[in-house]
Amino acid sequence: MPSDISAPEVDASASPTAIRLGGRFTLFVSAVCDPGVEANLREPFELGPSFEIKRKDSKDTPRADGKKIREWQVEVLAWDLGDLVIPGITVTYTVQGKVGQVQTNAVRLRVDGVLGDVVDDPKALRGAHPPTALISRDWFWLWVGAGIGALLGAIGAYAWVSSLKRRKRTVRLTGGIMAIPRKKIDMTAEKALAALQKIKDSGVLDREADRKRGYTEMVDVVRDYIGARYQVASRDLTSLELIRNLKAVAPDDERAMVEVWLERCDRVKYGAYRASAAQANTVLDDARGLIVATTQLRDAAKADAA
What is the DSSP letter of 36? Predict the structure, then answer.
């Protein structure tokens, strides 16, 4: 076996980490290799019965220190509900004719159902019936079609009138400008989103020398947002202490999103892991998604309570 000194530094992450049943997400696997070390994913590459792999690509990026980053991007569909975990992924490597392997960290996901928890309930299905012969002209379905057409026309007219009355503004999110109704994003979220955009525009995440500082700035923004959103102290606590305090004030799904995101940042802030520019920008995009998701979920909960 090759020495541990030659083993590549590996990492795995997913984006997004909260998806719908049957939804698509991207699994990122990266390996930082010394000169002369070749890394590959173990074949056949499988993630288990809960996931379907649609496509897998890889690319190599040289670093200024002579090392090489090999990154795999795997498009995956999720076919199971609940809190799912992708176990550590085995990365094999060769150096001087010898073969070794290392494992990445596990990746956690949240998969929600679209039609509810019960699918194809036998009690909700009608019994079997024999064919019915058509012996005369039946105007029933003509009347049904006319009624449905009138109903759809009325709904369309109402939606058009409502859209004229509804004022919209824009908030910069992942991938460009997205129109969002005024009530969806409050001032706390707007302030955090603007701070994240400022970090992205500064280019600090694209410069290797400044990337760790960029992670620190992102964490400060999200911690300030969490403190204002949930009315808890957030700056002077460890990530574990912050998550423990959120148990009393935040729903489980929102706390899980915050916990996963902070874990990814802590590996760069306090560990030896060196993230790529692409990984850093993905973390920033996920921070935006966390802010928007927690804002909209809390607004929906308030509306249901009212």
Answer: T
The rounded distance, in Å, linking the Cα atoms of 166 and 179 is 12
Fold identical between 4-112 and 168-305? no
Question: In the numeric block, which tokens belong to residue 118?
Answer: 């019960």
Helix (H, G, I), strand (E, B) or coil at 233: coil
The label of the residue with tokens 């550590």 reads 88
Helices 252-269 and 277-305: crossing angle in degrees, nearest 10, is: 160
Strands (E), 38-143: 38-41, 51-62, 68-78, 82-86, 90-95, 98-103, 107-112
| pLDDT one-digit tens code per residue, 223-281 | 899 888 888 887 778 888 888 888 888 899 888 989 999 989 988 888 778 889 999 99
What are the structural domain ranges in the chain?
A: 4-112, 168-305
Architecture of domain 4-112: Sandwich (2.60)
CATH for 168-305 is 1.20.120
Q: CA 221 to CA 197: how far, in whole Å? A: 11
Give residues with Cβ within 8 angstroms of 266, minimum separation 6: 239
Name the residue among 299, 290, 305 with its Cα closest to residue 225: 290
Give 257-283 as a 3 state SS string.
HHHHHHHHHHHHHCCCCCCCHHHHHHH
